Amino acid sequence: MNQMIKQLVNQKINNMTPDELLKVSRQYGLSLSRSQGAKVSGLLKGREVDIFDDHERKALLKTIAKNIDPGLAVSMNKLFNQFI
After folding, report:
1. Chain centroid to CA 22: how far?
2. Known InterPro entries for this protein (predicted)?
3. End-to-end C-alpha distance for the chain, whole angstroms
4. DSSP state string for 21-74
5. Domain spans of the chain?
6. Which pTM was predicted?
7. How far apart are CA 57 and CA 67, in angstroms?
8. What is the separation of C-alpha 83 from the centre of its chain, rounded to a whole number of angstroms?
9. Which end of the chain is more exposed for a tag (fewer CB within 10 A), N or C?
10. Is 13 exposed, middle or buried (0-12, 13-18, 19+ CB in 10 A)?
């Protein structure tokens, strides 16, 4: 995949607001509450996670599972896979 496209996708994900996250999750048929969206958005804010890097993506998903909800980590992985 083109490096510029990867950079744009990562930038969008790393800066998603809770409302944007909810909208995107609904587009892909994933269940996400407003509270969960806010928590995930908070985890992403200020981090520069490269979702195309398996190690970084898995570390983020482990953080989501540990701090928010393991089921949500599974849903977020499905969402990330849509982008990659």
Report:
1. 11
2. DUF2624
3. 9
4. HHHHHHHTT----HHHHHHHHHHHTT----TTSHHHHHHHHHHHHHHT-HHHHH
5. 3-83
6. 0.86
7. 15
8. 10
9. N
10. buried
pLDDT of the residue at 1:
66
Which residue reads 């930038």 in tokens?
11
Assess contact for 82 and 24: CB atoms under 8 A. Answer: no
b/e per residue, 33-63, with b = 16+ CB within 10 A?
Answer: eeebbbbbbebbeeeebbbbeeeebeebbee
Alpha-carbon dihedral of residues 29, 30, 32, 38, nearest 10 degrees?
-100
Exposure of 72 in the CB half-sphere (CA atoms within 13 A): 21
